[in-house]
Design brief:
- There is one protein chain.
- By secondary structure, this protein is of the alpha+beta class.
- Helices cover 21% and strands 34% of the residues.
- It is built from 4 helices and 5 strands.
- The longest helix has 14 residues.
Protein backbone atom coordinates (compact mmCIF):
# COMPACT_ATOMS: atom_id res chain seq x y z
CA UNK A 1 0.00 0.00 0.00
CA UNK A 2 1.01 3.58 -0.33
CA UNK A 3 2.18 5.87 2.42
CA UNK A 4 -0.75 8.25 1.90
CA UNK A 5 -2.56 9.31 5.03
CA UNK A 6 -6.20 10.21 5.42
CA UNK A 7 -8.06 12.66 7.60
CA UNK A 8 -11.20 10.92 8.88
CA UNK A 9 -14.12 13.02 10.06
CA UNK A 10 -16.83 11.27 12.04
CA UNK A 11 -20.12 12.83 13.14
CA UNK A 12 -22.21 11.91 16.14
CA UNK A 13 -25.58 11.08 14.63
CA UNK A 14 -28.71 10.86 16.76
CA UNK A 15 -31.59 8.57 15.84
CA UNK A 16 -34.84 8.95 17.72
CA UNK A 17 -36.86 5.77 18.13
CA UNK A 18 -40.27 5.40 19.74
CA UNK A 19 -41.21 2.22 21.56
CA UNK A 20 -44.44 1.93 23.54
CA UNK A 21 -44.79 5.70 23.99
CA UNK A 22 -41.17 6.03 25.17
CA UNK A 23 -38.69 8.11 23.18
CA UNK A 24 -35.17 6.75 22.84
CA UNK A 25 -32.39 9.00 21.56
CA UNK A 26 -29.70 6.72 20.19
CA UNK A 27 -26.26 8.08 19.29
CA UNK A 28 -23.70 6.52 16.96
CA UNK A 29 -20.63 7.69 15.06
CA UNK A 30 -20.85 7.91 11.27
CA UNK A 31 -17.90 8.40 8.94
CA UNK A 32 -18.77 11.67 7.19
CA UNK A 33 -15.59 12.30 5.20
CA UNK A 34 -12.20 10.80 4.39
CA UNK A 35 -9.69 13.15 2.76
CA UNK A 36 -6.34 11.95 1.43
CA UNK A 37 -3.40 14.06 2.59
CA UNK A 38 0.20 13.89 1.39
CA UNK A 39 3.12 15.09 3.41
CA UNK A 40 5.03 14.53 6.61
CA UNK A 41 3.60 14.06 10.10
CA UNK A 42 3.61 17.79 10.86
CA UNK A 43 1.53 18.58 7.75
CA UNK A 44 -0.93 15.75 8.50
CA UNK A 45 -1.36 16.98 12.09
CA UNK A 46 -1.87 20.55 10.84
CA UNK A 47 -4.55 19.47 8.35
CA UNK A 48 -6.33 17.47 11.10
CA UNK A 49 -6.26 20.52 13.37
CA UNK A 50 -7.60 22.72 10.57
CA UNK A 51 -10.46 20.27 9.99
CA UNK A 52 -11.26 20.21 13.72
CA UNK A 53 -11.37 24.02 13.83
CA UNK A 54 -13.33 24.65 10.63
CA UNK A 55 -15.45 21.63 9.65
CA UNK A 56 -19.20 22.22 9.96
CA UNK A 57 -21.22 19.02 10.51
CA UNK A 58 -23.97 18.31 8.01
CA UNK A 59 -26.58 18.27 10.78
CA UNK A 60 -25.79 21.94 11.50
CA UNK A 61 -25.48 23.18 7.92
CA UNK A 62 -29.27 23.45 7.60
CA UNK A 63 -29.29 26.04 10.39
CA UNK A 64 -26.29 28.05 9.16
CA UNK A 65 -26.59 31.35 7.36
CA UNK A 66 -23.79 33.07 5.45
CA UNK A 67 -21.39 34.70 7.91
CA UNK A 68 -22.38 32.53 10.89
CA UNK A 69 -19.58 31.30 13.10
CA UNK A 70 -20.63 28.37 15.32
CA UNK A 71 -19.46 27.90 18.90
CA UNK A 72 -16.68 25.33 19.03
CA UNK A 73 -14.87 23.47 21.82
CA UNK A 74 -12.02 21.38 20.39
CA UNK A 75 -10.21 18.79 22.51
CA UNK A 76 -6.98 17.09 21.46
CA UNK A 77 -6.81 13.51 22.76
CA UNK A 78 -3.59 11.73 23.67
CA UNK A 79 -3.74 9.58 20.55
CA UNK A 80 -3.77 12.68 18.31
CA UNK A 81 -7.46 12.66 17.47
CA UNK A 82 -9.69 15.67 17.98
CA UNK A 83 -13.12 15.61 19.64
CA UNK A 84 -15.07 18.77 18.88
CA UNK A 85 -18.35 20.09 20.25
CA UNK A 86 -19.97 22.42 17.69
CA UNK A 87 -23.04 24.51 18.47
CA UNK A 88 -25.17 26.79 16.33
CA UNK A 89 -28.55 28.43 17.08
CA UNK A 90 -29.25 26.15 20.04
CA UNK A 91 -28.31 22.93 18.20
CA UNK A 92 -25.22 20.94 19.12
CA UNK A 93 -23.23 18.26 17.37
CA UNK A 94 -20.03 16.34 18.11
CA UNK A 95 -17.37 15.49 15.55
CA UNK A 96 -14.22 13.42 15.82
CA UNK A 97 -11.24 14.13 13.55
CA UNK A 98 -8.45 11.57 13.35
CA UNK A 99 -5.62 10.57 11.06
CA UNK A 100 -5.30 7.11 9.56
CA UNK A 101 -3.31 5.30 6.94
CA UNK A 102 -5.18 3.16 4.44
CA UNK A 103 -3.85 -0.36 4.88
CA UNK A 104 -6.19 -2.61 2.91
CA UNK A 105 -8.74 -2.28 0.12
CA UNK A 106 -10.99 -5.12 -0.98
CA UNK A 107 -13.48 -4.46 -3.76
CA UNK A 108 -16.93 -5.98 -3.74
CA UNK A 109 -17.28 -9.21 -5.68
CA UNK A 110 -20.66 -10.69 -6.52
CA UNK A 111 -21.18 -14.28 -7.49
CA UNK A 112 -22.59 -14.85 -10.96
CA UNK A 113 -26.31 -15.70 -11.14
CA UNK A 114 -27.14 -19.38 -10.78
CA UNK A 115 -28.19 -21.40 -13.78
CA UNK A 116 -31.44 -23.33 -13.75
CA UNK A 117 -29.52 -26.56 -13.16
CA UNK A 118 -27.75 -25.06 -10.11
CA UNK A 119 -31.03 -23.72 -8.70
CA UNK A 120 -32.68 -27.13 -9.03
CA UNK A 121 -29.67 -28.86 -7.47
CA UNK A 122 -29.76 -26.37 -4.57
CA UNK A 123 -33.47 -27.00 -4.03
CA UNK A 124 -32.87 -30.76 -3.98
CA UNK A 125 -29.79 -30.77 -1.71
CA UNK A 126 -30.82 -27.94 0.59
CA UNK A 127 -28.87 -24.84 1.56
CA UNK A 128 -25.08 -25.00 1.84
CA UNK A 129 -23.57 -25.03 5.35
CA UNK A 130 -23.07 -21.54 6.82
CA UNK A 131 -19.65 -19.93 6.70
CA UNK A 132 -17.62 -20.20 9.86
CA UNK A 133 -17.34 -16.85 11.68
CA UNK A 134 -13.95 -15.19 11.87
CA UNK A 135 -11.83 -16.02 14.87
CA UNK A 136 -8.30 -14.91 15.76
CA UNK A 137 -5.48 -17.27 14.80
CA UNK A 138 -4.27 -19.62 17.53
CA UNK A 139 -0.87 -19.24 19.16
CA UNK A 140 0.60 -22.67 18.48
CA UNK A 141 1.09 -24.15 15.00
CA UNK A 142 -0.79 -27.40 15.71
CA UNK A 143 -3.96 -25.59 16.67
CA UNK A 144 -3.66 -23.20 13.72
CA UNK A 145 -3.67 -26.01 11.17
CA UNK A 146 -6.57 -27.90 12.75
CA UNK A 147 -9.01 -24.95 12.86
CA UNK A 148 -10.61 -24.16 9.48
CA UNK A 149 -10.86 -20.49 8.67
CA UNK A 150 -13.77 -18.78 7.04
CA UNK A 151 -14.05 -19.82 3.41
CA UNK A 152 -11.68 -22.81 3.67
CA UNK A 153 -12.92 -26.24 2.60
CA UNK A 154 -11.71 -28.96 4.99
CA UNK A 155 -14.16 -31.61 3.77
CA UNK A 156 -11.87 -33.36 1.31
CA UNK A 157 -13.11 -31.49 -1.75
CA UNK A 158 -16.73 -32.65 -1.68
CA UNK A 159 -18.06 -29.32 -0.41
CA UNK A 160 -20.31 -30.96 2.20
CA UNK A 161 -19.74 -31.71 5.84
Amino acid sequence: MSADWYILIEEDIRDTKHLQAIEFRLHHWKLAAAHRVKGDEARIAAVAEDAALHYLPTTLTRYAKPGDRPARHAFLAQDGSWVVLVGLRGHQCHIRVSTARLMHVHEEKETPPKTLKEMLRGAWEGPPPPEQPWSPPAEDEDRRESVPRSGEDRTGGEGRI
